Each structure stands twice: as structure tokens, then as C-alpha cells.
């Protein structure tokens, strides 16, 4: 008989108490009868025989107790009873259960959710067979403290020389148009990747084959492998797709296979073409790749790192200038893609998220503890009676802890389920969006997080159960019994809890103020109406495939590419303008309503130092000469651009009305000169750059998005703007095209695609959408933001109200006798109420005060606004404070009414 | 020597051995019959409340050494009869062996004195 089996039997017996008890009682009963019969047979009278049987048997209850101890785990049976009691208490106090449970569920949701997110960021796990063996290789630039991608040269050397890694491969991500039939197709991300990737990931294709080494050879046929998502969306899941020819940018390629659902190695990829070794530039540092491999059997990350360092030392000997400051890094693959700085502060910053979540949990549980304490105060008599009947302190404490544990466990299941669902929804939403999210960001909570949440639950239960429990059983019971019978009530609220309530009220005020500002921003952005009918315009970003490895690897846009791009873009514009449904087409670096233009620092000539300042950061955009005409913007002064402005020496600019108002102080703009403080690409350069040439303002146009100053500057489309003439071939890449439709702008999209395909299959059309959807997106973001902050303030408010209610309840129950005496002595009701109100009133007032000071400080520091605006904000803040006091007064109504109903005779009857 | 002075106190753990041995000799018995049998074969009065058997019975049953079942007594009364199992037989053999060794050691020590 193994100990485990015996343990399990005893455990099972602990839960089948009733049957075992009945069985035992029956057995003892039979035993006593047999004894009794025996004594009667010996000649004893029946009555005496019964007593003799009892004597011979011994104490029946004691026997039962001994048998119970032998049969089961008595402590467990005790806990089961506590557990039942705990559940009963939750049902009996539904207010506490709901408020406390929801608050704890939210805190556990936040804690577990953030833990999961941090864990995924710091310790990502690849959902691939033996994914932990897959590594990424990269360089760390010790001189600049940045990560540097390896070049083809490094990749080829690593592949040849590293024995600790096998299946070493590389990839880069391109964008190309994919056309399944006729037409230009649509842009897709393409992973140009070594065939080794498919062997290394050990995921077999769903259809056909994956890439193989032969595909990498020069002159081999052009092939591609489709991902499951692309196969479904672009090819309707057609199983006959293998062998089909498609156009990918400028080339024709054959589909040779389809990968199964969920496979998106290396990042979030759905289309793979071979990385041809012959096309790689075999010079160090000429291009940039991402390199991966799998640890050879028995090899460790550390060994691979040591070997990579050894190879790097030899490379550095050959090219000291380029490699002396580069240190190779062999990292778990996910860490080589989603890279976290090894900087201690960054790491600490990431992990501090968990610390904050923990702090939040402690804060919330502190509040719930306050509620539990209040309930314990109202249950004081019951607890005292249990003490008097022999319940030990430990036992009473245990009961409170078990009650808290039941509540915390309920809250944890709710919080975890919600966190899991939220995480899954967030991953889904992220994947539906345009951004690329690594394929290992999937699914809900991991088992490690569930374990962490279990620890959080225990912590929560300890705070909620132990803290009030110790307070309840802490003092000498005899004192309490005496006080209680004198009607005074013994429990008092401590200073910590008062501080907590003050802090929460302050937080509510701050949250409400933030919610107000963000809500106004959301409303403002939604309300901005451009002067032109934005819904009639179709916008698109135009990009183009580079040609050959040299263009692909170039760090700046090469001249040849620029010319080819300009020619294609102008041809597209010309042909699109000729369409009957098109009323006008223009090109620009940024389109109107785009709030995220790169602001550039400019300098206004001759501006007096001081007011208005001579240096500004404003959104500047190069625009085609017909830009204002197509957007129907009236010229308020001077002129719009024309052919004169397209020469390099023209040096002209047009500004909008807001520019004149805010930067030139409303004075005449025509003829004034401005210049960029630095050339466009010098933003990151640490050395002070030469300012650009002077530009003369030749015209002022109406604001495309007129608006009053927004509460916040972020995402505000109403901004001062500077326009410079766009001459394709000389200007930036990529450009935006806007087409004004005579009817529905979406109906222009097919024509746009057709023409673009005819102009050049390498011209890619990105983000085709009506012009007004961009601002709609911004407004939606701000609305979500508002709701989040409102949720935060609602939680802070609910906790504050619960806290105030608790304080009031305790105050009233503690002072019942005193109130009774005062009523008996004829005290008027208002004075009574004032007496009870004083403490919570002071707490709320202190909280509101602290909150207002915080908000006021931020507003005063941030606002450059007028006195009137300041006064308005102050009035709003005051109103918020008063509203807060009023809401808090609501929490006091119940206890106050209870106090007013106190009958002197009732209150004093214990004294009689 | 008075009857009180002659009472035998059971050694810790010996009750299990006694119950197993009794069932091995007598076949299936209920608790009352086990207690009666013990008293009957003892030369001295046993310091044993009959109820003391119950923890030992449940312990042996949980170990799988005996098995209880409700049956009628000869007086047509319901009682729980305990039977020795195979595992119980093996356990009894082991316990007898270890008891003999212990008793031999104690005897030897006492004789020396």
C-alpha cells in the first residue's frame, strides 16, 4: 500500500464525510446492542445492561472523534466548513461581494495582463518545433551604442564558418505588387529568404513544396511560396494554385507551394521568394540583412556567441575600420527581431510596469480591506460571541482569510477570463490593422501568467483578510467585550485609510480633469471641417520597387530611381486626369488633414527676438503647382505656385492663414523671407547643420482645416502650414496623390489600379482611401482614449465612494449609543448630522483640494492661454470639486438616515 | 495483585497486529466479536475500551488490509463484518516477523538483567 494511495483515500474521505459518519454511527449502534444483549444474557436487567454496554464501549463521541482523525484530514474538514461559511458570507453581503469582487477582478486583470505583455516582450517564445533553439545573429555597434544589421558578407561567412549553428539563413523584407490575373495587383510584403528557413522551422508545406536550395541558384526559375492568409484572400483558397504563374512587381513567378495556417516566419510573412546567393553583394557593410540559424545538437547559445566572436575577430583583422567597433550578438530569434535595449534603465522601466500593477492591486485591496473591516465591525458581536464560546484568534482570523480567499478566487477567475479575452481581442485587432506584428504574438494568457495571477490572488486575499482580521482580533477581547456591551463599539478607522480615501478622491479629480481635456480634444478633432469636400477625394501613397541589389541596398534614394519614379508618377497623374470621372489630380509630400507631417524648424527673417518668436516648428509640405486649385483653396493674398516656381533657383513659398496669424502676428506676409534651420535629412545629425536657403513668401492661402486652438496640439489638423513647390525628380520619396472625383471617390480606385499597372508594374499603390477617413481614424483613437480615462476615473470614484460609505457606517455604528444619548437630551437633527458628517467631509475636502492643486498646477504650467481661459478652467475645476463633494454626500445618506432613526431607548437598552 | 494492577496496557501499534491476527484465525468478524475474542483469550484483563478498535479498523481498511461488509449476525442483527484481504495476509506475515524480532530482543534484555 503506497503512501500516496493512503493519502488519496484519506483525502477522499475528507470530502465524503456524511456517508462515513452515518456508517460509523450504524456500526457503533450495532456494537452497543450486541454488548447489551450479551449482558442481558448474563442475567442483567435491561436498564443496567444498557449502562454496562456503554461503560464497556467507552465514550461514544470520543471514539467517533478518534475514528474521524484516523479516517480523514480533520484540518481539511475544518477548512471545508470555513469555505462554506465564506461563500455564505459573500451571499449575505452582496454589496461588498459585487463592489469588492469587481474592483479586485479589475486589479488582477491589470496585473495579469501587464505581466503577460511584459513577459512576451522580454521572454518571447517561438511557436515552432524546438523554437528555443532558433537564434538570430546581429551586431552591436559599441561606438554608437546601436544595433547594426549584418551585411551579406557577414551572412556568407557565418554560414560557412559557424559550427555551433546549422541551417544558417538570411532574409530581407520587400514590398511588391502581387497580381494574380490581369492588372497591377496590390502591394504585399515579400520575405526574400534563404531556403534553409523552411528546413530550420520544421514546418511542412500545406500544398506543393517550400523553397529549396536549387531556387537560390542564379538563373533558376522565379518561384514563390504563398502563406495561408494570402492564399485565402487573394486566391480564394484555390488548391490548384500550385503551378500557377503570377506577377510579382516586375517579374513573373510560379507558385510552388502554400504554407499552413499560422506559419509566418520570419516575422509576419505570407509570401516567400528565394534570396539568391549570386545576387548578394559580397562586400562588407554594403547591404543589410537579418540572419538566423538553429543551434546545432548539443550546442548552447553561449558557445555560439563565443564562436561568432571568434569569427568576428578574424573579420575585424581584415577590415579594422568597419568592424573594430562591431560586436556580434547571438540572441534567441524573437529577441533579435523585437529588440529590447540591454540598458539597465530600459529593463528596469519595463519591469516597473509589473511593480506599478502590483501597487495598484495593493491599493485596490486596501480599499476592499476597508469594506471588509466595516463588515467585521458590524459583525463584531458575532465575533465576540465566537470568542466567548472558545473560538481561538487563529480560528477567527482563519475564517476572515478564507472569506477573503473565496472572494479573491472569484475575482481572479473573472479577471483572468477578462484578461484572456481582452488579450485575444487585442491580438486580433492588431493583426487586422496595417502594422506587422511578429507571429509569436498570439493567443491569450500563458500558464506562467496564470501562476502569477494565483500568487496575486493569494496576496489580495492576505491584504483583504489578514489586515482587517488582525485589527479585529488584535486587541484584548475582554476589553472589547466590555466596550461592546457598553454600546460604544470598539473598532476605529486608522490614519492610513483616511490617507487612502484622500488620495483616491484626489485621483478621481485628476482623472476627471484628464478625461475632460481628452474628450474635448476628441470632440474638437471630430468637429474640424475642412473647407474642401474631403469625402470627394481619393488619396493614395505611391511607392516603387527598386531595381537590382544596388538600388535595394542604397541608404538614400538613388538619382536613377528618383528619375524613374518621377516619370511614372507624372504619367500616372496625366492619364488619371484624363478619366471622365476625375475632376482633378494633384501630388504632394503630405496631403491636407494629415496631422502627422514632420514638423521642421524654420526661422523667420527679421523677426524681433521675443514676441512672436523667430523660430518655429511647423508642418511643411512640397506640393504640385495645381494643389490649391484641385483642393479649391482660395488665395487670400499674393499668388499660388505656377511654372515659374519649378526652377531650382526660384526659392518661393506659400503659407496658410494660420501661419500669418500665429507666426507673423497677422502682419503682411508677402515678400517676407523664411528658411529651414537645417536640411531635411539632418534631423538626427548631432553636428549643427547649415540652415537652408531663404524662401520668399509669394502667397497666402485659406486654411484647409480652419479651427480654433484645440485643447491639445496633438493630431490637430488646424496648424500653420508652409508649402514649397514640388518638382518631381528633385523632391522627396514617396509622394501622395489626391484625385477629386465627380461622384464617389471609391469608384476611382479600379481605374487608378488599372492605370498604375499600365504605367509600371513596379509602381505600388498604398493606403487607397477617401481623404476624410484619416481624420475619422484620429477621432476614433481619441474617443477610445477618452473612454479608457473615464473608466479609470469611474473605478477611482467607485472605490472612494465605497471607502466613504465604510467610514460613515463605522462612525454611525460606533456612535449609536452617543447619538442615542444626544437624541434623548434633545439635540436637533442638523447638529447631529453635522457631527457625523464632519470626518468624511474633511476627508473629501482634503482629497478635492489635493486633486485641484495638482490639476491646477499642470494647467498653469502647460497653458500659455489668456486670463479668461485660465478663469474658465479654474471655474470648471471648482465645479468638478463641488460635484465631487455632492456625489460623496450620496454615499453618506444611508448611514446618516440610520443614525437619525436611532431611538434612545433602543440605543441604551444594553445599559439597562 | 488486584485486578486493576494486573490490567495489560496495549503497546503502541500492537492493536493492528492483534486485529489482523484475530481475523486470520477466526475468519470474518464484526468489531464486537473482535473485542470479545481479545478479552476471552487474554490471561489478564485488557486495558481496552471496545470503542478503541474503531480507529484501528478504519486505518486497516484504508490500507486495504481488511475489508468491511454489512451482514446479519446469528441473532439476525445487522453488523459490519471485517475480512482479511490478500494484502492483509502479507502485511500480517511481515508484522509477525518484525514483532518476533522485537519481542526476542526485549526478552533477551530482560533475561540479561
Keywords summarizing the entry:
heterodimer, A: 912 residues, alpha+beta, 22 strands, 15% strand, B: 113 residues, Arc Repressor Mutant, subunit A, 3-stranded antiparallel β-sheet
Explained architecture:
The complex is a heterodimer of chains A (912) and B (113). Chain A is an alpha+beta fold. Chain A folds into five domains: 3-72, no CATH class; 96-115 and 344-479, no CATH class; 131-337, no CATH class; 492-508 and 779-912, no CATH class; 534-754 and 768-778, no CATH class. Chain A contains 28 helices and 22 strands. In chain A, the strands form three sheets. Chain A has a six-stranded mixed β-barrel. Chain A has a six-stranded mixed barrel with strand order 14-15-20-17-19-18. The longest helix of chain A has 42 residues, at 773-814. Chain A is globular, with a radius of gyration of 38 Å. The relative contact order of chain A is 0.09. Mean pLDDT of chain A is 82; it is low at 484-491 and 682-687. Chain B is α+β, with helices and mostly antiparallel strands and 113 residues long. Chain B has one domain (14-112): Winged helix-like DNA-binding domain superfamily/Winged helix DNA-binding domain (Arc Repressor Mutant, subunit A, Orthogonal Bundle), CATH 1.10.10.10. Chain B is 54% helix and 14% strand. In chain B, a hairpin with a 5-residue loop joins strand 2 and strand 3 (78-84). In chain B, helix 1 packs across helix 4 (86-112). Classes of the chains: A alpha+beta (912), B alpha+beta (113). The interface between A and B is medium-sized, with 31 and 25 residues.
Amino acid at each position: 500500500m503506497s503512501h500516496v494511495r493512503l493519502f488519496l483515500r484519506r483525502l477522499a474521505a475528507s470530502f465524503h464525510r456524511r456517508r462515513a459518519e452515518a456508517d460509523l454511527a450504524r456500526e457503533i449502534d450495532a456494537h452497543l446492542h450486541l454488548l447489551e444483549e450479551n449482558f442481558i444474557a448474563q442475567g442483567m436487567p435491561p436498564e443496567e445492561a444498557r449502562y454496562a454496554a456503554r461503560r464497556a464501549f467507552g465514550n461514544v463521541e470520543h471514539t467517533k472523534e478518534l475514528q474521524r482523525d484516523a479516517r480523514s484530514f480533520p484540518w481539511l474538514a475544518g477548512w471545508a466548513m470555513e469555505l462554506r461559511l465564506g461563500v455564505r458570507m459573500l451571499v449575505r453581503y452582496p454589496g461588498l461581494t459585487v463592489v469588492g469582487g469587481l474592483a479586485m477582478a479589475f486589479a488582477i486583470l491589470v496585473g495579469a495582463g501587464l505581466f503577460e505583455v511584459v513577459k512576451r516582450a522580454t521572454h518571447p517564445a517561438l511557436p515552432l518545433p524546438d523554437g528555443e533553439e532558433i537564434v538570430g545573429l546581429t551586431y552591436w555597434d559599441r561606438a554608437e551604442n546601436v544595433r547594426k544589421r549584418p551585411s551579406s558578407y557577414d551572412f556568407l561567412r557565418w554560414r560557412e564558418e559557424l559550427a555551433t549553428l546549422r541551417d544558417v539563413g538570411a532574409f530581407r523584407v520587400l514590398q511588391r505588387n502581387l497580381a494574380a490575373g490581369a492588372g497591377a495587383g496590390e502591394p504585399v510584403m515579400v520575405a526574400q529568404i534563404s531556403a534553409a528557413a523552411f528546413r530550420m522551422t520544421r514546418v511542412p508545406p500545406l500544398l506543393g513544396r517550400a523553397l529549396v536550395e536549387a531556387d537560390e541558384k542564379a538563373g533558376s526559375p522565379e518561384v514563390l511560396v504563398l502563406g495561408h492568409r494570402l492564399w485565402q484572400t487573394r486566391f480564394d483558397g484555390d488548391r490548384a494554385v500550385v503551378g500557377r504563374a503570377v506577377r510579382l512587381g516586375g517579374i513573373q513567378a510560379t507558385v510552388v507551394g502554400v504554407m499552413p495556417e499560422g506559419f509566418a516566419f520570419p516575422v509576419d510573412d505570407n509570401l516567400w521568394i528565394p534570396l539568391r546567393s549570386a545576387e548578394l553583394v559580397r562586400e562588407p557593410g554594403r547591404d543589410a540583412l537579418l540572419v538566423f540559424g538553429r543551434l546545432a545538437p548539443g550546442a548552447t547559445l553561449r558557445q555560439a556567441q563565443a564562436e561568432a566572436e571568434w569569427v568576428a575577430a578574424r573579420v575585424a583583422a581584415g577590415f579594422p575600420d568597419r568592424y573594430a567597433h562591431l560586436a556580434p550578438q547571438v540572441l534567441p530569434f524573437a529577441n533579435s527581431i523585437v529588440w529590447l535595449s540591454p540598458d539597465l534603465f530600459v529593463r528596469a522601466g519595463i519591469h516597473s510596469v509589473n511593480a506599478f500593477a502590483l501597487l495598484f492591486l495593493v491599493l485596490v485591496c486596501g480599499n476592499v480591506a476597508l469594506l471588509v473591516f466595516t463588515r467585521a465591525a458590524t459583525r463584531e458581536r458575532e465575533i465576540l460571541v465566537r470568542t466567548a464560546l472558545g473560538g481561538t484568534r487563529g480560528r477567527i482570523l482563519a475564517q476572515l482569510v478564507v472569506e477573503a480567499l473565496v472572494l479573491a478566487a472569484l475575482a481572479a477567475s473573472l479577471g483572468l477570463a477578462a484578461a484572456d479575452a481582452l488579450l485575444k481581442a487585442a491580438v486580433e485587432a492588431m493583426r487586422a490593422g496595417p502594422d506587422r506584428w511578429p507571429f509569436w504574438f498570439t493567443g491569450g494568457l500563458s500558464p506562467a501568467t496564470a501562476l502569477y495571477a494565483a500568487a496575486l490572488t493569494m496576496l489580495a486575499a492576505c491584504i483583504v483578510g489578514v489586515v482587517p482580521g488582525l485589527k479585529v482580533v488584535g486587541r484584548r477581547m475582554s476589553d472589547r467585550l466590555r466596550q461592546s456591551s457598553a454600546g460604544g463599539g470598539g473598532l476605529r478607522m486608522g490614519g492610513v485609510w483616511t490617507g487612502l480615501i484622500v488620495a483616491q478622491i484626489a485621483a478621481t479629480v485628476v482623472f476627471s480633469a484628464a478625461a475632460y481635456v481628452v474628450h474635448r480634444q476628441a470632440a474638437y478633432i471630430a468637429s474640424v471641417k475642412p473647407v474642401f469636400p474631403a469625402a470627394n477625394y481619393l488619396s493614395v501613397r505611391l511607392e516603387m520597387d527598386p531595381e537590382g541589389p544596388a538600388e535595394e541596398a542604397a541608404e538614400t534614394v538613388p538619382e536613377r530611381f528618383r528619375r524613374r519614379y518621377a516619370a511614372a508618377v507624372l504619367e500616372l497623374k496625366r492619364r488619371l486626369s484624363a478619366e471622365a470621372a476625375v475632376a482633378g489630380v494633384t501630388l504632394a509630400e503630405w496631403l491636407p488633414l494629415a496631422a502627422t507631417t514632420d514638423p521642421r524648424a524654420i526661422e523667420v527673417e527679421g523677426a524681433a527676438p521675443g514676441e512672436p518668436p523667430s523660430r518655429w516648428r511647423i508642418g511643411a509640405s512640397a506640393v504640385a503647382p495645381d494643389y490649391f486649385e484641385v483642393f479649391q483653396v482660395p488665395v487670400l493674398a499674393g499668388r499660388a505656385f505656377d511654372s515659374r516656381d519649378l526652377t531650382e533657383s526660384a526659392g518661393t513659398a506659400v503659407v496658410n492663414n494660420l501661419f500669418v496669424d500665429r507666426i507673423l502676428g497677422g502682419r503682411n506676409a508677402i515678400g517676407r523671407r523664411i528658411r529651414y534651420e537645417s536640411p531635411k535629412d539632418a534631423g538626427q545629425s548631432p553636428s549643427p547643420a547649415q540652415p537652408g536657403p531663404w524662401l520668399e513668401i509669394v502667397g497666402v492661402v485659406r486654411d484647409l482645416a480652419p479651427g480654433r486652438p484645440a485643447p491639445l496640439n496633438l493630431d490637430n489638423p488646424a496648424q500653420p502650414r508652409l508649402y514649397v513647390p514640388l518638382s518631381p525628380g528633385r523632391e522627396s520619396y514617396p509622394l501622395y496623390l489626391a484625385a477629386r472625383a465627380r461622384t464617389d471617390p471609391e469608384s476611382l480606385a479600379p481605374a487608378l489600379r488599372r492605370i498604375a499597372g499600365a504605367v509600371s508594374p513596379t509602381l505600388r499603390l498604398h493606403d487607397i482611401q477617401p481623404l476624410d477617413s484619416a481624420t475619422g481614424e484620429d477621432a476614433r483613437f481619441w474617443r477610445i482614449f477618452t473612454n479608457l480615462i473615464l473608466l479609470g476615473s469611474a473605478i477611482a470614484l467607485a472605490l472612494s465612494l465605497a471607502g466613504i460609505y465604510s467610514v460613515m457606517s463605522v462612525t454611525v455604528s460606533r456612535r449609536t449609543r452617543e447619538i442615542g444619548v444626544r437624541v434623548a437630551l434633545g439635540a436637533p437633527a442638523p447638529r447631529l448630522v453635522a457631527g457625523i458628517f464632519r470626518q468624511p467631509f474633511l476627508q473629501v475636502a482634503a482629497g478635492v483640494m489635493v486633486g485641484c492643486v495638482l490639476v491646477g498646477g499642470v494647467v498653469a504650467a502647460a497653458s500659455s492661454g489668456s486670463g479668461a481661459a485660465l478663469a474658465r478652467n479654474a471655474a470648471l475645476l471648482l465645479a468638478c470639486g463641488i460635484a465631487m463633494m455632492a456625489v460623496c454626500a450620496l454615499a453618506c445618506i444611508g448611514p446618516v438616515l440610520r443614525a437619525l432613526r436611532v431611538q434612545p431607548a433602543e440605543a441604551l437598552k444594553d445599559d439597562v | 495483585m488486584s485486578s486493576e494492577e494486573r490490567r495489560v496496557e496495549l503497546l503502541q501499534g500492537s492493536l493492528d497486529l492483534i486485529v489482523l491476527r484475530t481475523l486470520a484465525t477466526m475468519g470474518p468478524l464484526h468489531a464486537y466479536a473482535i473485542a470479545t475474542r481479545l478479552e476471552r483469550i487474554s490471561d489478564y484483563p485488557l486495558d481496552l475500551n471496545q470503542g478503541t478498535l474503531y480507529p484501528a479498523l478504519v486505518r486497516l481498511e484504508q490500507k486495504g488490509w481488511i475489508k468491511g461488509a454489512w451482514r446479519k449476525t446469528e441473532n439476525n442483527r445487522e453488523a459490519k463484518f471485517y475480512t482479511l484481504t490478500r494484502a492483509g495476509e502479507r502485511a500480517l506475515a511481515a508484522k509477525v516477523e518484525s514483532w518476533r524480532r522485537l519481542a526476542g530482543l526485549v526478552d533477551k534484555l530482560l533475561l540479561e538483567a
